[in-house]
Amino acid sequence: MTLRQRTWQPRRSAASRLSANRFDFDSNSHPTPKETLRMAAHDLLKPYDDLRVLVTGGAAGIGLAIADAFADCGARVHICDASETALAALVDRPQRPALGATLADVTDPRAIDRVFADIAHTFGGLDVLVNNTGIAGPTGGIDEITSAQWEQTVAINLNAQFEFTRRAVPLLRNAAHGGSIIALSSVAGRLGYAYRTPYSATKWAIVGLVKSLAIELGPLGIRVNAIQPGIVRGPRMRRVIEARAAQLGLGYREMEARYLEKISLRRMTDPDEIAATALFLCTPGARSITGQAISVCGNVETL
User: Fold this and answer.
1) Which long-range contacts (CB under 8 A, 24 or more apart) does 260-266 make?
2) What residues have CB less than 8 Å from 184, skipping those under 6 apart?
3) Which of 115, 122, 60 is closest to 93 using CA atoms?
4) pLDDT of residue 191
5) Closest CA to 180 of 224, 220, 218
6) From 195, 199, 252, 259, the catalytic residue
7) CA–CA separation, 150 vs 171, rounded Å?
8) CA neighbours within 13 Å on the CB side: how many for 115?
9) Could you tell me the domains of the chain?
10) Which PROSITE patterns match (predicted)?
11) Strand order through the sheet with 52-56
12) Tens place of pLDDT for every residue, the chain, 303 residues?
């Protein structure tokens, strides 16, 4: 599925040219220092040129913000999403870069295989995998949550990251600048989250997955990091606040104010701030950053 056609022309920035001079690549595509070259700070902070990026759950919210940010920087971006309606809404967006897309249920291995078949056909490889797909899961006490709700949350939030990662590694190991895997976790993956147990459990598990994979894949030149958003402005957070407000018998505004009181900066995070962090993790300045869980949340103190 192509959302809108565009002519793609490769570009080479100063960062790309200097990086090409800085590293030799062995048979495992693992960058080895060749010579010391100083790069200007603004070059260190530019994403590598000609990146091929896959964003799961990329048709809305944080995923779409990340996809658009990479596309705006000249990357070729492919998204997958389970919502046909959300994908259709992206067709012919004015003044926006084109995105490739595959309709896919991330709990279906055959659908995931189709995503990678599309990637192989259109890109011929992959430089960046953004594991973004996730759901909020149920809101309720542990004695109220059903086994089906638990299993669905684990399947979408955690198992899908495993399935996409294991298929992506053979492609990422051949990335010109070393592959990058970015996993969306949450501040619920560093804090306890009462009444959102399935969600929090999966987000903690993602951090464990990231730290283990960083050790395993580092010798292949593949970096693996997690981003931990906090309370992010958007429709999904609104639904979470509404559900919690209903549970406590409060109005929406009162419940929203309680959430904001838990943030040191007293404001929600915008999706574009998460996207900017994902971009940074694909710059020369981040080439030594791996195995990290980076909170982008205004310092959420408790949940």
Assistant:
1) 260/231, 262/231, 262/300, 262/301, 262/302, 262/303, 263/230, 263/231, 263/297, 263/298, 263/299, 263/300, 263/301, 264/298, 264/299, 264/300, 264/301, 265/298, 265/299, 266/298
2) 62, 130, 131, 132, 134, 206, 226, 227, 229, 274
3) 60
4) 96
5) 224
6) 199
7) 32
8) 32
9) 40-230+269-296 (3.40.50.720)
10) ADH_SHORT
11) 100-103, 76-81, 52-56, 128-131, 180-184, 223-229, 293-296
12) 555 433 344 444 434 433 443 334 344 444 444 433 567 777 888 899 999 999 999 999 999 999 999 999 999 999 999 999 999 999 878 778 789 999 999 999 999 999 999 999 999 999 999 999 999 999 899 999 999 999 999 999 999 999 999 999 999 999 999 999 999 999 999 999 999 999 999 999 999 999 999 999 999 999 999 999 999 999 888 988 998 899 899 999 999 999 999 999 999 999 999 999 999 999 999 999 999 999 999 999 998
Alpha helices of the chain — where are they, by DSSP H? 14-22, 41-44, 61-72, 84-88, 109-122, 147-154, 160-172, 197-217, 235-248, 252-261, 271-280
Measure the N-to-C terminal CA separation of the chain; round to a whole number of Å.
39
What amino acid is encoded at 113 in this protein? Answer: D
Pairing of strands 76-81, 223-229: unpaired
C-beta separation of 11 from 49 below 8 A: yes
Can 199 be counted among the known catalytic residues?
A: yes
